[in-house]
Amino acid sequence: MPGPSLEDVYYLFDPKTTFGTEFFRKYYVEIEHSESNIDELKTRLELSLKTREPIKILFTGHRGSGKTTALHRLISKLGGEFFIVHYSAFDIMDINDISYTDVLLSMLSKMLDKIDGEGLTLNEALSKRIMTWGSSIEKIEVDEETESGGIAAKISIPFLTLMGKIKTETSSRTEIRSRIEPKVSELINIINDVIAEIEKTTGKQVLIVIDNLEKTDPSKAIEIFYNHGTQLVQPLGKIIYTFPIALKNSEKFSQIVINFDKVCMHPNIKILDKAQNPYSNGVKVLEEVISRRAPLDLIEKDALEYIINMSGGVVRELIRIIRDSSIRAITKGKKKIDKEIAITVVNDMKNLYRGQISEDDYRILGEIYKSKELKRDEGLVRLLHNLSVLEYRNDTDWCDVNPIVKSLLSEKGLIRS
């Protein structure tokens, strides 16, 4: 039987890989700082079981740093004391246009969906109240003879349909939000009564985990977390919200965190320390991320070093560079990824960055390259959001220019190569 090939690399290095038991068994790599974060979150959640605290957590990190993987890891470690409602904002909302009312309605919709999936039912009075509120927002028709399985199923389907309209229909989205806005207090009351009913019926405490919410535009995130943070913490379940790392450096951040119990930072993997010395532990982790999927000898040694360095320690960027390099190598009839191939892939990525960086951004990037310091700066907020600047952690947080963007600074003569 032939060994792994570049074709296998293409299939195994997919940035959109779905997660499951088999994924963790084969490909999960323990990262010291990530595992400690996960264990601390697990402890915090377990301690809150006794006090019944409805704790609210902001879980942040760069896009592609492995937050989704970390959340799946956390959920896999939690015991049966939790009724877990875990979903992606991508699946149920328009990530480019999210309102706080969408987030609250998504909680109700996904809880009802989970109730349906678990074969549970709500008491009749609560079910009727949910239907009455829903009908005041959008006409809901339910076939009383349906055999889809219980009153909860009759409710979850139209609410998920309503979320579908919010996600895909711009005109419906605006109209539905205008109807929800004056009735949002009742929506929160219904969410809380559903949580209470779940906990009474199952003996488990509700934990809601909303992933990919951090990918919304910073201006939308401010509308959600700053303007309406008080509404987000009113549901009485335990909730983990993913949160844009860029907003950690917004002037509004200190006001945002007042409403939440904990901000958990999921950092990138360091391959250089703040003084720009090689950090071998980080390099070894990234090599293991690769070798779990395919033999390292499918990548020439100098190409491997180059790819790891240019990834900046962002796992998804590492995987994307390798996958795109495998396509280019296969096209050229090569059996391995060499440095020349990797450079052409990185150059394509560099051109994408070039198109989103303004002259004022270059000034900020030059300052960050020299200082490595995080500061309250709305310009830095934008650069963190688009990955031009990457945040790392020692005893204190620090940042650096994305290695791919550094080459743009070199081209403009702003730094020495």
TrEMBL record:
The organism's superkingdom is given as: Archaea
Show which residues constitute the signal peptide.
Answer: none
Where do the KAP NTPase domain residues begin and end? 52-226
Cited InterPro entries: KAP_P-loop, P-loop_NTPase
- Protein name as annotated: Putative Signal recognition particle GTPase
Q: Which organism is it from?
A: Candidatus Methanoperedens nitratireducens
Lineage of the source organism?
Answer: Archaea, Methanobacteriati, Methanobacteriota, Stenosarchaea group, Methanomicrobia
